[in-house]
């Protein structure tokens, strides 16, 4: 219920104005977002890489409505990738891209063209791109664009969401050699017709999908903070004899950093998803919807009104 209310608020421009301009928001945002600009993204990436983590960077922004916005997002990724290369932060750092930020909603072809330019820039500095997955109305279009991109850039990563009923089948399609697939639970509010609604069903689906990916020929990227699912991931890695070069764990910046360090200490590859940029509202609201403790953190910041 609370999750639905917060996710509904994430689509409200009135609530957005209220939250975005509130003084306390800055402190909350700082916990989950690297900062506003490319320099912040590079600084945080350097810190994480020095701690033995790999990184995927997300330039915040989604639901772009004009070609100019889409071009600006593409250009920011091109700049970011060039600077990551110059700083020696590739291949440890790659980028995550939302096709909606590249114009998917109004012009699929230009979203593809923009994504292609980003993939080419990533390849030029020896790294990769992962296409984030958004709400279910975009899944087919995103997987179509992924398939086209993979013809020229086979290491382009996909994201599959365990809450969608279709995902086991998508996992089977994508568990092929060289195919990088991030498996997450899914962060959007979806109708029962397409998505499991209870946490238990989502978790069970995650495990089924994890088994398909870990027993297949691709490169699974297990994106979760859930201790039970992480333990199952570790177990399946042993069972399927997958060393640290054949799969990875992924977690979000600011969430369970001590667990990220523990896994690195155990010898696993762990990638931290680092968002940066001004357009943090939708991202922050999804993080708040996921976990009551994050809401308590938000409430404390409101109460102290720093
Ligand atoms: C790297 C990465 C990329 C992602 N990309 C996408 C994407 O492209 N599309 C998409 O829809 N979603 C994406 N997500 C979000 C994802 O779908 C989930 O919404 C999000 O990860 C929360 O699910 P969870 O698996 O962590 O489990 P949850 O059900 O949120 O949490 C399960 C358990 O994990 C532990 N836990 C969680 N948070 C904390 C915390 N702050 N401190 C301590 N323990 C905690 C608790 O024990 C909790 O009960 C991504 C997530 C990650 C990590």
TrEMBL record:
Residues 42-298 form the Proline dehydrogenase domain. GO terms for molecular function: nucleotide binding; proline dehydrogenase activity. The keyword Oxidoreductase applies. It catalyses: L-proline + a quinone = (S)-1-pyrroline-5-carboxylate + a quinol + H(+). GO terms for biological process: L-proline catabolic process to L-glutamate. Pathway: Amino-acid degradation; L-proline degradation into L-glutamate; L-glutamate from L-proline: step 1/2. Binds 1 FAD per subunit. Keywords: FAD, Flavoprotein, Nucleotide-binding, Oxidoreductase, Proline metabolism. Pfam families: Pro_dh. Substrate binds at residues 98, 286-287. Its EC number is 1.5.5.2. FAD binds at residues 133, 161, 185-187, 224-225. Gene3D superfamilies: 3.20.20.220. It comes from the Bacteria. Its cofactor is FAD. This is proline dehydrogenase. The lineage of its organism: Bacteria, Bacillati, Actinomycetota, Actinomycetes, Micromonosporales.
């Amino acid at each position: 219920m609370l999750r639905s209310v917060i996710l509904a608020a994430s689509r409200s421009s009135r609530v957005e104005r209220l939250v975005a301009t509130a003084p306390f928001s800055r402190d909350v945002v700082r916990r989950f977002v690297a900062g506003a600009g490319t320099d912040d993204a590079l600084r945080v990436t350097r810190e994480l890489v020095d701690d033995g983590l790999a990184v995927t960077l997300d330039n915040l922004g989604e639901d772009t409505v004009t070609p100019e916005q889409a071009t600006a997002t593409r250009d920011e990724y091109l700049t970011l990738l060039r600077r990551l290369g110059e700083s020696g932060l590739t291949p440890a750092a790659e980028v995550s891209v939302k096709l909606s930020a590249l114009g998917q909603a109004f012009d699929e072809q230009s979203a593809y063209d923009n994504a292609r330019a980003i993939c080419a820039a990533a390849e030029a500095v020896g790294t990769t791109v992962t296409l984030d997955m958004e709400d279910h109305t975009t899944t087919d279009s995103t997987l179509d664009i992924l398939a086209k991109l993979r013809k020229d850039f086979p290491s382009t990563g996909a994201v599959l969401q365990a809450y969608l009923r279709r995902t086991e089948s998508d996992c089977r399609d994508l568990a092929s050699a060289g195919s990088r697939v991030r498996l997450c639970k899914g962060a959007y509010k979806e109708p029962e017709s397409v998505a499991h609604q209870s946490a238990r069903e989502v978790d069970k689906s995650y495990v089924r999908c994890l088994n398909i990916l870990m027993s297949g020929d691709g490169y699974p990227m297990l994106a979760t903070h859930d201790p039970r699912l992480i333990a199952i991931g570790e177990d399946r890695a042993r069972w399927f004899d997958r060393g640290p070069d054949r799969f990875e764990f992924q977690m979000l910046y600011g969430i369970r950093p001590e667990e990220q360090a523990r896994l690195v200490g155990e010898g696993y590859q762990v990638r931290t998803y680092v968002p940066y940029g001004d357009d943090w509202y939708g991202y922050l609201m999804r993080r708040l919807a996921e976990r009551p403790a994050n809401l308590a953190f938000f409430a404390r910041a409101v109460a102290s009104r720093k």
